## 1
Amino acid sequence: MATAARFLLRGSRTNNAQSCLGTSLLKLSPSCSSQVKTQRRHAHFTYHPDPVPTNYGPTTKMNLFQSVTSALDNTLASDPTAVIFGEDVAFGGVFRCTVGLRDKYGKDRVFNTPLCEQGIVGFGIGAAVAGATSIAEIQFADYIYPAFDQIVNEAAKYRYRSGNLFDCGKLTIRAPWGCVGHGSLYHSQSPEAFFAHCPGIKVVIPRGPVQCKGLLLSCIADDNPCIFFEPKILYRAAVEQVPVESYTIPLSQAEVIEEGSDVTLVAWGTQVQVMREVVTMANEKLGVSCELIDLQTILPWDSETICKSVVKTGRLLISHEAPVTGGFAAEISSTVQEECFLNLEAPIARVCGYDTPFPHIFEPFYIPDKWKCFEAVKKMINY
């Protein structure tokens, strides 16, 4: 009975998401249109595209989900061992990230799985150990928890426990991540900190389409199992000129997006877009110069770039959507305090989600928006 109830509840989750997000890229039903309007009304950032890359060949306009599709298409075309699997991926997926790939490459390479995250990741581990480039999709990051044991106790430790005789390094796990404007407690979570405590895997979160494709291809090519979280609110909101051919962006390297001298701002995923606006606000309203850094890889993270910036600015603000207690901002804060204590001009600040389940109608009060981050900058400057 419990299993049947779980299936009905999860099936409802899948069907609702598909009906509003996956049925058409051009037309929306009235109910779906209202949801999109709600999302825009509650949007806590304005997306600012990165400059057009010039070192990877021809580009074309893509939103974030299309950049994922492009990366997967490049991989399937160049690697005959590559397989993509998960709930509904053969139909294009809830967010349309795999649309057209089954028809192009066949049902043996792009296929659906049962509604069982533990089984999806377990199968992915086995396929990777057998030599396949294994790309698993967890339909929402919120539902990665049933696969936690497979990821933490099997995938992350496979190489170590065999003394490097065997490994599942060709496993990449993709999952939509973060708040979306109306996702509530089961479709808005940011679970990266859970996996940051586990040696043996890499955890990566992009801020936009160009980074998304390059970092995803890097994860797929990496010799370690990787978890790739995709900010779902950016799937359609983020549009950039993205290279058509394959390219990679190095993992475990943070990127300094805006240089500054007074405060270091660190974020990842959607929150980078929030921080872009904080940089402008701080400059216009306070005359404060902020240095903005996109962490990009959560594990193993680039402490050198962060510490180098803090030595210069003397102040650090870290922001993420996940709850503040035990969030990855705490790890960054601790490391910077140990390495840069004598350089700090003010206490390190964290602007994060609250220690509650992610709310629905109160989402605008929960998320760490630009005003909360701006107030933290003002407090540090006046310390």
## 2
Amino acid sequence: MANKLIGEMDLHKRISNIFAARNIITAKDALSMTEFELMELLDVGMKEIQSAVRLISEAASPPCLSARSLLEQKVENEHLSGHLPTHLKGLDSALCGGIPFGVLTELVGPPGIGKSQFCMKLALSASFPKAYGGLDGRVIYIDVESKFSSRRVIEMGLKSFPEVFHLKGMAQEMAGRILVLRPTSLSDFTQSSIQELKESILKNQVKLLVIDSMTALLSGENKPGAQRQQHQLGWHISFLKSLAEFARIPIVVTNQVRSQNRDETSQYSFQAKLKDGFQEHTRTYDSHLVAALGINWAHAVTIRLVLESKSGQRIIKVAKSPMSPPLAFPFHITSAGISLLSDEGTELKGPGINNIHARGHSDMINFNGDCS
């Protein structure tokens, strides 16, 4: 609750605007300062500061609830819960139906492994009629790296769901339900544009939000240092989590990887060095890989799916989930999209759960220029 947005609290509009103007966005930002520091920074009287701090504290500190009250709330909100099927039988079974509503789900993996393929298939599933296992809604697809392909989406639909896509006008209708935005950096995501996004989700019956990729949004910023990057990431984490809970839709975000070793702690694993005009395959390629957005982001997501390549075999791992043990499923990519080679997942134990591999990565198949 410390990351709850001040703009969504019941503060007077004038004082709320003053907080925003001084870049005090969350409850944690405000409550980390003394009343005298806030009075000096905001240039308002002590009485107003004390009133605002009291309201923020109450909003950030929800009352204790009994187990019975929590059970009653769950029963009341049962109709708001649900899942977006991935149409990967083993994965859907592990996740109790698919990608859950109301939380953040992350796809993390090296480039070319299939993250965008997975996202496009989800977008297709969300736009499908309910009679065919879809959500019968619109999708907002934030395509940061210009990897979204309408042709690829239609190809997946024709190959995966021919009984639907061969109906007259169905391919055009499904493609028309996926709204693609292409910002270049977090600067394009101002507070006003984010509010517009929130209103658009509610008005247009949006059933899925995809951000592909959050890492690319951050790397597009011209920042003086990592501290500003982490502040902006923290603000957007708070917004995405509150949006998922408020709109009760699945939000799927992709995350890239970086290498972590003694020589290069921040270089992406796929960046090979050049030596005498030839590509040198250094041990950076097979070094330990980690998710690029760091530990704060890892704590924010509810579901983490890791896509990796090990000895030429692609694998999707359920690395973090409150409803499933860590599981690994081998998969491949065909004209129909991602397909599991087996619906029986292999349970993972030990450090292999969080390790990310990118070996044998040169065998990626390219469909219409998209396989990332």
## 3
Amino acid sequence: MDLSSFLQALIPSWNSAYLLLGFFAYLAIAGSIVLGKLVPGVVLADGTRLHYRCNGLVLLLLLVALLGISAKMDFVSPTAISERGFELLSTTFIFSFLVTLALYFAGCKSHSKSSSLKPHTTGNLIHDWWFGIQLNPHFMGIDLKAGMMGWLLINLSVLAKSIQDGTLSKSMILFQIFCALYILDYFVHEEYMTSTWDIIAERLGFMLVFGDLVWIPFTFSIQGWWLLANEVKLTTTTIIANCPVFLIGYMVFRGANKQKHVFKKNPKAPIWGKPPKVIGGKLLASGYWGIARHCNYLGDLLLALSFSLPCGISSPVPYFYPIYLLILLIWRERRDESRCAKKYKEMWTEYRKLVPWRILPYVY
């Protein structure tokens, strides 16, 4: 694709806008109807807190079923997303921009008496719009579910396109299986998200909204797009070798997050069959958290790598996601270290001595 064709493909269309609005309308309406466990978010400065309805798995399965029935009845094409990828990308970007502007001005209005917020200065306006004003990501019933669901929908449309074009390969199947298992697991353990960095530390600004609505679905699916245009023949040995990367990554990622979540609910709950080692009554130093201070990041990186390995090593393009994630998590780890050092002080110093490794034991 030459530059002029690429720019032409980026022009938003009404069809893309309808697809996007239909998706968010479904999330807003069905999300408020479908039952799910209510999980409290972080306590805000005014003492209030939002409650998240963890119904993502049912919403996702219902949406896929509805789209499948609609495709069977020729109401919608299963390749609609894959055929409008760039249009949807630009349309979603515009939507994210407009939504965060609305959130910013709404936040300014509700925080008009705050001395720390000065929207009349250009610097503060850009800063508050980019990083956000309010914690607890939630907008019109739509929260962090959207990005993960969008990722799966893009993957499924890419899969449908490969079947339609007669290019379905073992590489595509392996990539689709790994991503689908990861996304489904995310919603099975949706409650754990309420104790992650995105919820407890990030604010609802353009950075988070763009990351959730644009970056996650459109960049995490790059491998699928690449496989549509490139043939990769995997041997049985290669397929078998790829699987442990996913399985180990999943075990570390899910295990670490589960231990952290369970510890926050019950600090005395056993870790790997033993009483947990706790520093200052607040910092868990057992299990995965006794191996590395951000061991969950290692699991996330291995999972990201497993999504790219089915594409072979002929091009760096499919490896954009794990490379980007490595940079992001190192940056986030540094921010988290600084935040924890200020919050826990001597306890954090003791924890660092007990657990010297940041992400990868004996390396970093």
## 4
Amino acid sequence: MENIERIHHHDTKFIDQNGHLQTIKIPVVQDLAQLKIIPGEFIQNPVAAHPFPPNTFFDAIDMAKLRTKSGRATELRKLASICEEGGMFTIRNHGLDPRALEEVEQVVKHFFDLPFEDKKSSVGTYTDADNMGYGRNFFKSQHQPLDWIDRLAMKAAPLGSTDGLRVWPNNPPNFRPAVENFVEIGRQVLDELLEALAEAISCDTHSFSRYFDPKTSEINVRVNYYPSCPRPDLTMGLVPHTDASALTLLTQFGSENGLQVFKSNQWITVPWPCDSLLVNIGDLIEIMSDGRFRSSWHRAVVQPDTGRFSVALFYRPPRGAEIEPVSDGESNKYKKVVVGDYLDHFYKLSPTPTKQAIMFAKFN
């Protein structure tokens, strides 16, 4: 009983099957990790994962080569091959200031090192499609198995989108400047990749980037903390999903072994060094490319003795933008969709056991 009283809870709201607003208390995973407790609602019995076999090739995109005339063609071919097969890749020589990434790591660790009461007083919780603030996300039912994760989410763009909302922690005081700096320099890399992806399939360079106005495009930030877990074989850090973005850029620290992608009909641990960044192709690029690029079906697992952090930037056009697939002269497989309509569908449906949300944009 003494241990149970030491566990704090998030008050999480959801709409039940009868359309009624319900509130449920969900244990804070950091507390469970410290006490080495796994309540029954966290048990999911995930399928065992496999490490990459020794000869499996998981190459990184070299941004420095992509920026040169002599190396660009080779990197574009590599980029096309990777994104047609699995939709996930790491990037090296990206040019982001290491000090900026170190500062993000410092402020994130500082925030999660705070006592629960200080975290709650530092930032609010807002339940909507983006689930901003400190709390839980994608919660639909009190019977839903819970992920082994504590998370924090903010909207960093467009400018002013969180005015009046207490979604940015004020402790540590440099949290917002550090994360916004990462967003600013990360956007430059994402814009480069949007143009490279279009060029990689012989489309006009601006086929994808034309939807991304710097004043209206959205960048959501999500900080994921996966504490160590006494029985990682029984639970999941984040259930399988795709990203409702065009591109997602991630940095991680604490551990290198928690991300898995479904590839060759099995779950495979992604070799993602902490000194490189990772990019996910999201559903919106799958639509824009008419399925030539595939959004990655991925998940996060947890470890018995090590916690892991990741910071993700979800980049997408404004909600009112209508995106359409590029054409190769044949009938398109995907429809035109309004970004906001797709997001509403995605969040209403998620989480799903298979890659179902994208069917919203496909012709029958």
